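Work Package 3 (structural annotation) set out to generate three-dimensional models for the target panel prioritized at the project kickoff. During this period the team completed the workflow that converts sequence records into discrete structure tokens, so that structures can be stored uniformly alongside our sequence database. As a representative example, we reproduce one entry of 521 residues exactly as it appears in the project archive.
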Amino acid sequence: MTATIFQTLIGIFAYFLIIIAVGLWYARRSNSNMDEYFLGNRGLGPWVAAMSAEASDMSGWLLMGLPGVAYFTGSNEAFWTAMGLAIGTWLNWHFVAKRLRVYSQIADNAITLPEFFSKRFHDKKHILMTIAAITILVFFSIYVGSQFVTFGKFFGFVFNAENYYVAMVIFGAVVVLVYTLIGGFMAVCMTDLIQSVLIFCALIAVLTCGFVFSGGFSGVSERLSDFPRFLDIFGIATPTLQDGKQIITNGVPQFGAGANYSLLNIVSCMTWGLGYFGMPQVLIRFMAITKSSKIRQSKYIAVIWCLISLFAAVAIGLVGRAYMPGKLNDASAAENIFIYMTVDFFSPLLAGVVLSGILAASMSSSDSYLIAASSSLANDIFKPFFKNASEVAVMWVARIAIILVTIFGIIVALSGNNSIFRIVSYAWAGLGAAFGPLVLFSLFWKRTTLPAAVAGMLSGGLIVIVWKNFISKLGGTFAVYELLPAFIISALVIFVVSLCTKVTNPAIEREFEIAAKEKLD
């Protein structure tokens, strides 16, 4: 091990120790009862709620996947995806956050999203809650795998050896497992707060240095103008490939003439924003905030953080192509551009601290996915079917679930699909389509019925799978991001089935009216 690598690792492992210490600090409090372990006893302040929500949402995709897309094919896909996510963030905080915070408490103090659905519709047989919990388990397990891919890529680069990929995937997974297992929801949220600050600072530091070392705005623009349609948000750069790798001639990457980026492509990218309405790791923060009156402050914090971070990540990919144009020659390798720039710009010890931003992004997401998946299995599947189970038993089931999801995530990470962007997009679509329309109808349409909720959730999740694996292969219009058709179909199913069925319990409508009034107040 060289002195440079050793110094870099000091910075990284110092970060690891801080995160584990936070988990240990919250261990006693979090293990006191189920409400504390799964929801922090609804005690999140506005800063913690906002920053932990955004950090858990963005994942390693923000520092690797998104810059990688911008680096490889230019500004278009990355820009429109970031735009959709920024708009979706604002809409979610503005319209959903306060209503869900109020309604989840009115609905018999629901502490998970599946439990809220079940209590919102008075589902005595727990059909809706079980389906929702299984959906979370499936797609969050895939999501966790995408974060473990980040660990493997990251440490493989630091050690300069691909042979370390498997070991580092497992190592990163174990660290996240430890502090999530012992600290519960509050440990996850507080570590996410720390990690959100680190992510933000890392993005700004690397972007600023990138502009300085590339000759500022004019230098970057001049260099990228040599690549056809690279900066055109209505066009897409087309790398010239040979055996799946971009051809590099004398250090210069080769591009074709580029292509138009159609309205369908733009809509497809911006559709990512729809996913926010169904993201349990974000929605649970709305439910956990201490008072609904604090949500307005949280909204501004979250949206500002999101806007700056997203567009800084896109800019890093573009500046990275100007700074080292021929360094990375395929889409998967391009996701390492943030790492290469950091190592070039900073001393080894400081680089270790900045690079911890990647780990922060991945860990802040994977810990949230683990706690959400475990609460779904323990609180929403195990507890309803074993009514006499003690809180201690339920919490032990949750811990076992965390371990199992971690193992499955490791398997996904080692499966051979190394594109973080593509793995995330699939899981994001599944959760967004299964839960997004149902969340909106549950909160804003009194007439929504239990059969419609079940049908809408099932149709959304299934359409994502079918569209992704079969229909999208037809090409043309059918190549649209699977979240869009699945979201629309799920919404239509909920609407039509609700009209064909009735709300059978008057208490459901009374609770809805109370929640609506509280929202207005």
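The chain has a mean pLDDT of 87.
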